[in-house]
Design a protein that fits this description.
single chain, about 325 residues, mainly alpha, Rhopdopsin 7-helix transmembrane proteins, 3-stranded mixed beta sheet, about 75% helix, globular, disordered N terminus, disordered C terminus, olfactory receptor activity, Olfactory_GPCR
Length: about 325
């Protein structure tokens, strides 16, 4: 019991002991954060304001953008603040909250991406049944299920990790609280509850990946039958980047969580979390929406409305 009460706070690993490199790290993370935040806020705003975008596909995109905003805001601001203030301290409950929210948003996003592939499969492969299957009620239930699933996994992971005894070093060798680095500072050699949690998580990830792959294989086979080259290239330009990011996301997460704990940290251990916590939220706006014709039209309408409302463009011409 004494071991459990020792952990009142931890130290997140700094990027470097050199102040200039710490500032460079903070600037790099800040640029990534601003680009991703602006892209996701823009998508969320456009879909909310434009009535023509109130369809199942854009409903899921809106939820995805909100999840990306939350996921990025869970880890990056703390890392930036630590680099600039040269303090790496994080409280015990701050670490618990960070792990819970990170798992919640990652698990919810994976489930939501699966629902989005289902939506695209029905729209392309079964267009006559689309309105009957993808009703508003069904979409809301899918989105709610993704949040609920994420919350359950977040509670499961954070509970199974922080009921372990911690002793020795309090330094977490990562820029945020994650399961693999927390296991390294645990003095327990057996963690059955966590192993079960990780097994459930990996199982869900494999199931979602297989489902998405099968959905897109049917989509690709249907798209190849499109007579126009422009239609085929448009579909492939959206689907292929999605699959690439998904593959990188799932592969790096599986490697990070399944590799055995090592005494020394390698560069790969530090970079892997970037690929499943930072890369997808940053790339999603470019993959799903900012290259989309409907989104561009909604953006132009918003810009024109702003100019008209401020009187910068005359509403009537002589």
């Amino acid at each position: 019991m004494a071991n459990l009460t020792v952990v009142t706070g931890s130290l997140l690993m700094g990027f470097s002991n050199i102040w200039e490199l710490q500032v460079l790290h903070a600037i790099f993370f800040l640029l990534i954060y601003l680009v991703a935040i602006m892209g996701n806020i823009l998508i969320f705003t456009l879909i909310s304001l434009d009535g023509k975008l109130h369809t199942p596909m854009y409903f899921f995109l809106k939820n995805l953008s909100f999840l990306d905003l939350c996921l990025l805001s869970t880890t990056i601001p703390k890392s930036i603040a630590n680099s600039l203030t040269r303090t790496c301290y994080i409280s015990f409950w701050g670490c618990v909250s960070q792990l819970f929210l990170m798992v919640l948003f990652v698990a919810s996003e994976l489930f939501l991406l699966t629902m989005m592939s289902c939506d695209r499969y029905v729209a392309i492969c079964q267009p006559l049944h689309y309105e009957l299957i993808m009703t508003r009620g069904a979409c809301v239930k899918m989105a709610a299920a993704s949040w609920l699933t994420g919350g359950l996994f977040g509670a499961l992971y954070s509970t199974s990790v922080f009921t372990l005894p911690f002793c020795g070093s309090k330094e977490i060798h990562q820029f945020f609280c994650d399961v693999p680095p927390l296991l390294k500072i645990s003095c327990s050699e057996t963690h059955l509850a966590l192993d079960v949690s990780v097994a459930f998580g990996i199982g869900k990830m494999v199931f979602c990946s297989i489902y998405i792959t099968i959905s897109y294989s049917h989509i690709f086979s249907t798209v190849l039958k499109i007579p126009t080259r422009e239609g085929r290239s448009k579909a492939f330009s959206t689907c292929l980047p999605h699959l690439i990011v998904l593959m990188v996301f799932t592969t790096t997460a599986v490697i990070a969580y399944l590799q055995p704990p090592q005494e020394s940290d390698s560069l790969l251990d530090l970079l892997l979390p970037m690929f499943y916590t930072v890369l997808p939220p940053t790339m999603n706006p470019f993959i799903y929406s900012l290259r989309n014709k409907d989104m561009k039209t909604a953006l132009m309408k918003l810009i024109a409305w702003e100019y008209f409302s401020k009187g910068l463009i005359p509403k009537s011409f002589p």
